[in-house]
Write a structure and sequence with these properties.
7 helices; 33% helix; single chain; alpha/beta; 11 strands; binds zinc ion
């Protein structure tokens, strides 16, 4: 059972192609399951579409859901199309997000921390001029938020849990083993899976999220794993899936998971 749960399309304003293009790319890549998981609207913002190049308008959500469900029907028997969403995690708006998702038949929601101290995790400028203690504080806050996202219970999967290295590779060298272990302990206890997300290759860091070192610690804490290419181009669907599976087996994982109607499905590696 081959799956990729993390794909985007034109609605977010920074991805190419239609949902159908990603489904067709999934079929061409030999997938059995493709999850559509576009970026969540900024539900907590007073504007209808706070950032047109980052996420869809609030009013677009219902059309997104309808389109995925209609394609799910159309492609039945060829590929299982799942309704997902990559959601931001803003602790101050958590209840609003929880309530909004409950109104739709999502198969799963991926929870991603994209903002720390109100600045994008991908913004290189955020590190400029910081002393070592301040860099450690930002990294600690990132992992504190990831743990809080796991505790919220809103998400079946947590997205790219070391993506702060994306445009700032030295992030990985900021030593924070206790903070990372604590986040992984909470994730293991609360139960969401973490994704291996292969979009690192589209950023300065290369490779995938999270690092093998974090994956080894995740296994130790009983954290389950899932897979997502985070494709913003149809050609990236299922990117590096086989390499990730091989690495996970080397590390000691025996299965990975996807979610259908919010129920976990285990797939042997
Ligand atoms: Zn995106
Ligand atoms: Zn993301």
């Amino acid at each position: 059972m081959k799956f990729d749960l993390h794909t985007h399309h034109f609605r977010c304003g920074h991805a190419d192609g239609t949902i159908r293009d990603y489904i067709e790319a999934g079929i061409a890549a030999g997938l059995d399951v493709i999850g559509i998981s576009d970026h969540s609207p900024y539900f907590g913002s007073p504007s209808e579409q706070a950032f047109p190049r980052i996420a869809m308008a609030k009013s677009e959500l219902v059309h997104y859901v309808e389109e995925v469900l209609s394609l799910q029907k159309e492609y039945e028997g060829r590929i299982d199309v799942l309704l997902g969403m990559e959601s931001d995690f803003f602790p101050e708006h958590a209840e609003l997000y929880r309530k909004t998702y409950a109104a739709y038949p999502f198969d799963y929601v991926i929870g991603s921390v994209h903002h720390v101290e109100e600045v994008s995790i991908f913004n290189q400028g955020r590190w400029k001029g910081l002393a070592p203690a301040q860099r450690l504080a930002s990294k600690s806050e990132y992992y504190r938020l990831i743990a809080e996202s796991a505790r919220s219970g809103i998400f079946q999967i947590l997205g790219h849990i070391d993506a702060m290295k994306g445009n700032y590779p030295p992030f990985s060298e900021i030593a924070a083993p206790k903070e990372i272990d604590e986040a992984l302990r909470v994730i293991g206890e609360c139960g969401p899976a973490i994704e291996i997300n292969t979009s690192g290759g589209t950023k300065l860091c290369g490779g995938w999220y999270p690092s093998d070192e974090i994956l080894e610690r995740a296994l130790h804490f009983g954290v389950e794993v899932s897979f997502g290419s985070d494709a913003h181009l149809p050609a990236r669907v299922a990117d590096q899936r086989n390499q990730v599976a091989a690495r996970l087996k080397e590390i000691g994982f025996e299965y990975w998971v996807y979610y259908k109607r919010r129920e976990k499905v285990k797939v042997a590696l």
